[in-house]
Fold this protein.
Amino acid sequence: MAKDSKNNNKDVKNKKHFFKDFKAELKKVIWPTPKQVANSTIAVITIVLITAAIVFVLDVVFDLFNEKGINRLKSNIKNKVVVENTVENNTQENLVDNSATQNTTENTTENSVQEAE
């Protein structure tokens, strides 16, 4: 029991000592004047608003560039696909035309040979 009362007294003394030290430290703090607080607050709010405006403008600009760039890429890809399809179709048509011309030429040659005989 004696030990418990000694521990309790130490705890009470430590708590009183802590609060006295805490109060002494708070007295050492140099508190800003209301004018300094107002000036600092205005400065912080101004910097935050300027930064927000800059971020907003950059966001809009990058978004426009992104849209224009993506639309340009899409149109370039569509044009390339159309050109490639056109070239493929023309190549296939030329092959068909060439084979038809060759068949016609062969038939004409055969008919001429047969008539000559």
